[in-house]
Write a structure and sequence with these properties.
The longest helix is centred in the N-terminal third of the chain and has 29 residues. This protein has 15 helices and nine strands. By secondary structure, it is α/β, with parallel strands linked by helices. The strands form two sheets. Strands 5-4-3-6-7-9-8 form a seven-stranded mixed sheet, sandwiched between helices. It has a two-stranded antiparallel ribbon with strand order 1-2. The chain is globular, with a radius of gyration of 22 Å. The structure holds S-adenosylmethionine.
Length: 356
């Protein structure tokens, strides 16, 4: 019972208060996904102040569920409730983050990623015990959809307007007509955005995950860029073709088992004046500098998605989602690159430029 004497009541209350907020946020995760899936946020934000009956009618859902869902959303601060009229509404900021899929800060996608982790928990716990990997392809589909939905808004907001211009001479080459490989392209969000912006250039999307490549091919058709895109299943270490002007890796280098092998292959596949663009999650150099809300998201996702993904592949270097600039530089230099620099950044991403 000695611990009773050492407990500081204020510090204990602080932890319990934090836990209450976080348990509420965790419970809100699936509710956010249901709101997304059933179009509840979109209908609510479009209709302005409405009752639970009106929202249920508009979305063809059951009122009793919607009433409870709305109260939970209001308690979480994601919608507002007016007690006099019994109506719910969303501010422009709430709608921007929850109802607008093209907004750079669209929140629901992130919760699909979290959902996949819950579903894969048993597999992951086994991997923690054995040290074996869990491949990207072995996760629940929510991971692929969540990655697409969560990353795409950031690419729409930054890729063409700021990330590509931060690289030396790349935008002019893309305007004139460049050959580009987008490696680890997943559902092809980045490939399609670049293909739309630079119709004179040709884009080859590669990923080892067949299901993602099939999705990307369909998106290219619906987005009208099938004329200047190709999607193929390939590993980063052996994708075909050479003489690329630009090779891009969006949030995937650290997921690979052999990033140095991938770097060597990129080096061989680039023109002598080409550019390797590497987008990685935001991180500082040392663990203690990442013990903050953004680092918390990335370390937790990394232990359950990125590290297992790398450990499932040959070499299994497992850089992790918080690999420092120095570690990434080492990978590029070991791959044969002579220059490496952080070209720009956002609160969630670092953008690197490596040159042969
Ligand atoms: C976090 S996702 C990023 C997907 C996409 N670039 C995006 O930004 O939406 C990582 C991707 O890397 C792919 N990947 C992992 N290891 C790979 C490898 N060795 N070769 C090719 N693709 C790989 C996965 O299949 C997955 O699609």
């Amino acid at each position: 019972m000695r611990w009773i004497l050492t407990i500081n009541q204020d510090k204990l209350n602080e932890i319990i208060g934090k836990f209450a907020a976080e348990l509420g946020a965790s419970a809100q995760g699936p509710a956010i996904l249901i709101g997304e899936q059933l179009g509840l946020y979109k209908a609510l934000s479009a209709a302005g102040p409405i009752t639970s009956e009106e929202l249920a009618k508009k979305t063809a859902t059951a009122e009793r569920y919607i009433r409870e869902w709305l109260a939970g959303q209001a308690a979480g601060g994601y919608v507002n409730y007016d007690a006099t009229s019994r109506k719910y509404s969303m501010t422009p900021e709430q709608a921007f983050t929850l109802a607008n899929e093209d907004s750079p800060v669209y929140i629901p996608g992130a919760f699909y990623i979290i959902s996949s982790i819950y579903k894969d928990r048993a597999k992951l716990a086994d991997a923690f015990r054995t040290g074996k990997g869990v491949g990207w392809h072995e996760h629940h589909n929510d991971l692929f959809m969540g990655t697409h939905k969560f990353f795409r808004p950031g690419y729409i907001a930054n890729l063409v307007s700021s990330w590509l211009p931060s690289l030396d001479g790349v935008v002019q080459k893309l305007k004139d007509g460049a050959i580009v490989a987008d490696v680890g392209c997943g559902y092809g969000s980045s490939t399609v955005i670049m293909a739309k912006a630079f119709p004179n250039s040709r884009f080859f999307g590669y990923d080892y995950h067949l299901e993602s490549i099939e999705w990307a091919k369909n998106v290219a058709v619906t987005e009208g860029v099938s004329g200047n895109t190709n999607f193929e299943v390939a590993m980063a270490k052996d994708y075909p073709r050479k003489e690329f002007d630009l090779v891009t890796f969006f949030d995937c280098l650290h997921d690979m088992g052999d990033p140095v092998g991938a770097a060597k292959h990129v080096h061989q596949s680039l023109k002598s004046d080409g550019t390797w663009m590497i987008v990685e999650p935001y991180s500082n150099e040392r663990v203690e500098e990442n013990l903050n809300p953004v680092g918390r998201i990335f370390y937790n996702a990394s232990s359950m998605i990125c590290v297992p993904s790398s450990l499932a592949q040959e070499v299994g270097l497992a850089l992790g989602a918080q690999a420092s600039d120095s570690k990434l530089r080492d990978v590029a230099l070991q791959g044969g690159f002579k220059q490496f620099r952080r070209a720009t950044q956002t609160p969630f991403n670092r953008i690197f430029e490596a040159r042969p």
